[in-house]
């Protein structure tokens, strides 16, 4: 399976490439007053407002460093109710695409963060998969994707 590899803090993570619609350069985001820390802001994507989640913040760390290799990963987020929404993920040190042998994936054995999935080792260390469908807690989904915002 091909995964897009990036960092959350010092650790490497991967998102299955099939879930990534586009990799965008870091851009100016509109701040959302009173939004939870994990919400980096809104980006303007061809006239549409798309919420952006800071992967470092949602995992309990400091805000993502705004460096040359920090990117916004545009993904299609499927809610448990079946709705589809565009979502941006602010990711540090985006390294590119890497092949991960699905047979080599092992459960992480850690339940602290439900959005973190299986792990695989390679010459550079461990890559842990992000489970996109588990990334947003219900309260944050309700804030970002109100029913009246759903496409018709």
TrEMBL record:
<dbReference type="InterPro" id="IPR002545">
    <property type="entry name" value="CheW-lke_dom"/>
</dbReference>
<dbReference type="InterPro" id="IPR039315">
    <property type="entry name" value="CheW"/>
</dbReference>
<dbReference type="InterPro" id="IPR036061">
    <property type="entry name" value="CheW-like_dom_sf"/>
</dbReference>
<feature type="domain" description="CheW-like">
    <location>
        <begin position="1"/>
        <end position="141"/>
    </location>
</feature>
<dbReference type="GO" id="GO:0007165">
    <property type="term" value="P:signal transduction"/>
</dbReference>
<dbReference type="GO" id="GO:0005829">
    <property type="term" value="C:cytosol"/>
</dbReference>
<dbReference type="GO" id="GO:0006935">
    <property type="term" value="P:chemotaxis"/>
</dbReference>
<protein>
    <submittedName>
        <fullName>Chemotaxis-related protein WspB</fullName>
    </submittedName>
</protein>
<dbReference type="Pfam" id="PF01584">
    <property type="entry name" value="CheW"/>
</dbReference>
